[in-house]
Amino acid sequence: DIQLTQSPSTLSAFVGDRVTITCRASQSLSSWLAWYQQKPGKAPKLLIYKASSLESGVPSRFSGSGSGTEFTLTISSLQPDDFGSYYCQHYSDYPWTFGQGTKVEIK
Amino acid sequence: EDQLVESGGGLVQPGGSLRLSCAASGFTISTYSLTWVRQAPGKGLEWISFINSLSSTTYYADSVRGRFTISRDNAKNSLYLQMNNLRDEDTAVYYCARVNTAAIYFDSWGQGTLVTVSS
Q1: Which residues of A66-83 are buried (b: 16+ CB within 10 A; e: fewer)?
Q2: Cβ–Cβ of B111/A42 closer than 8 Å?
Q3: B85 near B68, Cβ under 8 Å?
Q4: Pairing mode of beta strands B10-12, B113-117
Q5: Chain A environment of B64 (Cβ under 8 Å)
Q6: Number of C-alpha atoms within 13 angstroms, CB side, residue A44?
Q7: Nearest by Cα to A34 from B47, B39, B53, B94
Q8: What angle do CA A42, B95, B38 make, to 5 degrees?
Q9: How far apart are CA A67 and CA B95, in angstroms?
Q10: CA–CA distance, B101 with A82 (Å, rounded to integer)
Q11: Which among A9, A31, A57, B81 counts the fewest CB atoms within 10 Å?
Q12: Residue A58 — pLDDT band, cuts 50, 70, 90?
């Protein structure tokens, strides 16, 4: 099975900061990677698919990049509403797995 | 608005069974594959089961294979998860999600239903 490792596990940043979350895969995914945001007590929400494609309705401050085994999710200017946990998910092959998550806190 | 609503969660004893349902509205599930993802308390997301639009292909995570069965009724616009021989470690919020038509990522999620396995 493909393993996804996210870093950092937790990050704390100020409003307006540029924030980057990394997802590393145990084998090449090509570009078959998605990113989700989850607020406490809520369902996950799709942000990015195919590594860098922005889901409709998602603010443009969110962007994704990478291919192969290393991917990043960037928030260009952190906003108060961006708190929560972020997960990467691969869809290169069955079984489809998630990273362990990154919790984003606002300072 | 596309919506998924899970139901059927609750408290069950170890070894017991439970059937979860997921009702879709705002779209027709017949053209979509669907999936179940769970989240144990304070933990991350775990994909557990997938079913294609025609019910001809199903997949399961190792952790539930042989105990859980995914099914769907396109006429009722609904997805199901039959869970047997439940264990303490199955305690989680269970989400149903729609699989995007282009690739296997999940573009719409239900609000989740909590399953608690405890004696």
Answers
A1: beeeebbbebeebeeebe
A2: yes
A3: no
A4: parallel
A5: none
A6: 32
A7: B47
A8: 100
A9: 28
A10: 28
A11: A57
A12: very high
Judge whether B58 and B48 are in contact, CB under 8 Å: no
Query: Quick one: tokens of A9?
Result: 């596990």
Distance to chain B for A35, nearest Cα, Å: 9
Contact predicate B23/B41, CB 8 Å = no
Tokens of B9: 């969660």
Residue with tokens 């860098």: A52
**Preceding amide of A44 cis, omega within 30:** no
Supply B19's token pair.
């059937």
Identify residue B118 by its one-letter amino acid code: S
Q: Residue type at A13?
A: A
Between chain A and chain B, the number of residue pairs with CB atoms below 8 A apart is: 56
Q: How far apart are CA A106 and CA B58, in angstroms?
A: 41
Positions of chain B with pLDDT lower than 50, given as ranges: none
What are the chain B neighbours of A99 within 8 Å (beta carbons)? 44
- B110/A36 Cβ within 8 A: no
Tokens 């608690």 locate to: B116
Contact B47 A97 (CB under 8 A): yes
Q: Is the pLDDT of residue A79 over 90?
A: yes
Q: Model confidence over A11-36: pLDDT tens digits?
A: 999 999 999 999 999 999 999 999 99
- Mean pLDDT (chain A, rounded): 97
Distance between alpha carbon B17 and the CA centroid of its chain, in Å? Answer: 14
Q: At A48, which amino acid appears?
A: I
